[in-house]
Amino acid sequence: MKEHGRTVHVHYYALLREQSGISDETVHTEAETVLDLFVELNERYHFAARPERLKVALNAEFRNWDDKISHGDTIVFLPPVAGG
Amino acid sequence: MFLLSAERIDTAQLKRALENPGAGACVTFEGWVRNNNEGKTVLRLEYEAYEDLALKEGARILAEALDKFGLLGATCVHRTGCLEIGELAVWVGVSAAHRDEAFAACRYIIDEVKSRVPIWKKEHYADGESGWVNCERCAAHGHDHAHGAGAAGILSRDDASYSRQTALP
User: Fold this and answer.
1) pLDDT, tens digit, for every residue of B106-160?
2) Scanning every residue of chain A, which has its alpha carbon at the shortest distance from the alpha carbon of B78?
3) Which of B23, B38, B58, B98 is such that its CA lies 20 to 30 A from the CA of A69?
4) B2-162 belongs to which CATH class?
5) What structural domains does chain A harbor?
């Protein structure tokens, strides 16, 4: 049977947390890649952050926008860092 | 050892942990909360970290420094939460046989931490406004980057802008 979509966990930090109004959520999505997922969530939250300015983490490791997402993954979109 | 701390950092204890009979040099760096940034008066700061990845990336930076500079010890602790002007935001300490590698390694660590570790800083200004440092610039407006956020544009994102940061404190 063909699988329809996947359930993933998304965490938000800093500017993206404020713009979404939440720290994390569980999303059922048809998105296949991290980028697809961002595009989908951006339609909901209208992030004032262009994706080319962000990085992405998949299961707490830096990964690429075209990486495939799987059921149960945790995804974090990372605004430009500013430690120190 | 890379740590995040929601509490005030005890530098004396951290420095003692770097002691080593083979060390001829110890260099430490303290990043303090400054009362101004880019012409605005800053009242206080908030630091937020993506803890799981920050700890991993911080540990990787210290491992790189130990290897690259042949250090005897290396530690970095970064604060999270609300900080007042003058408070210690980040502490780096290294011990080495000689001063040259100790100075270079300390500089390497703070520079890499600032550009790679997922920690964000929100400044609260005297005029009542506030803003995430470096984030406000990633807004959709006010930039001359290619519009129409197609995958190609996204995948060729400008890594330098990701970690754009003003001069070291």
Assistant:
1) 999 999 999 999 999 999 999 999 999 987 666 644 444 433 444 444 444 444 4
2) A84
3) B58
4) alpha beta
5) 6-78 (3.10.20.30)
Nearest to A82 among B120, B140, B154 (CB): B120
> B29-64 pLDDT, tens per residue?
999 999 999 999 999 999 999 999 999 999 999 999
Domain extents in chain B: 2-162
Both tokens assigned to B12: 């004396």
How many CB atoms neighbour CB B37 within 10 A? 16
From the list B112, B3, B157, B50, the residue with the least C-alpha distance to A60 is: B50
A60 with B90: Cβ contact below 8 A: no
Residues 54-113 of B with CB under 8 A from A: 56-57, 78, 89-90, 110, 113
